[in-house]
Amino acid sequence: MATLGLSEADKAAVEAFRRNVVDPSRTSLVIVDFWAEWCGPCKQLTPVIEKVCEEYAPKGVKLVKVNVDENGFIASQFRVQSIPTVYAVFQGQPVADLSQARTEGQLKQYLDQLLSQLPIESDEKAQLQEIAPLIAMGEEMLAGGEHDRALSVFSQIAEMVPDNVEVVSGLARALVALGQLDEAEAVIAALPDDVAKHGAIDQARAAIALARDAKPVADLSGIEAKVAADPDDHAARFELAGGLMSNGDRDAAAEALLEIVRRDRAWNDGAARAQLLKIFEAVGLEDPWVSAQRRKLSQILFS
Predict the structure, then answer these.
(1) By the 8 A CB rule, do 253 and 245 touch?
(2) pLDDT (tens digit per residue) in 227-270
(3) What is the residue-wise DSSP string for 126-193?
(4) Which of 13, 21, 30, 39 is catalytic?
(5) Active-site residue flag, 39
(6) Quick check: is 53 catalytic?
(7) How far apart are CA 110 and CA 131, in angstroms?
(8) What is the torsional sign of CA 16, 19, 20, 21?
């Protein structure tokens, strides 16, 4: 903003705006709320904006309130014609008009969209970059059967970011792998509602459900003999799949379920396919193993 020909008061206002809004907006998303003491709607909106911006501060959001009666020149530069008027500013430029957001949900929706599109720097983003290798390490340990070590890793990360969905999911799944199902359920039950709805948490829930259904079998030879004697004994093969899965042999379990689908996809109202999908969700839909098994299932279903 040019200051040539401005009064000293306007020059001070411009300098304050540069200091409080323009400079921080180089790396942060600055929410500028134009308001006035006499504005009734402003007083209604203020608690909403303040609450949401405080909640989003770790994400790189900063709130600046501009009294239009005291900062007429600033308001005119933004072409403020009515209040409340709320702009999101990034790198010195308005990037969105948030004036129509009058509820927490609406404002959060706008902010989430902006934060996903702009290279905002924040403590939260820096922390996520820091813990990403640790999460990957924990997942590798889980996949490799090092369940105690995975639990230790995820527990330590959870102390840093207790509501991170990937961390909570890993922690719960490590507990499941160690047979601590009640503890895994307690971890999920303690999550805020918005976090508990995430897909990664659904994966942990699926792992718990699968473990609840599992009945470890020390000796599968009897069931294997029944299947060998009658390959169309789908109930026996389904039982075999459950025993294999509970014993940790997911490859053989998946193959047994795929064979049921191959022979009779409608058996027991599609129980084999449903069990496969439950296993896929528990392992993780993005897992390469799941992708390979899903291709096999598709080939059977559409051949």
Answers:
(1) yes
(2) 999 999 999 999 999 999 888 899 999 999 999 999 999 999 99
(3) HHHHHHHHHHHHHHHHHHTT-HHHHHHHHHHHHHH-TT-HHHHHHHHHHHHHTT-HHHHHHHHHTS-H
(4) 39
(5) yes
(6) no
(7) 27
(8) positive
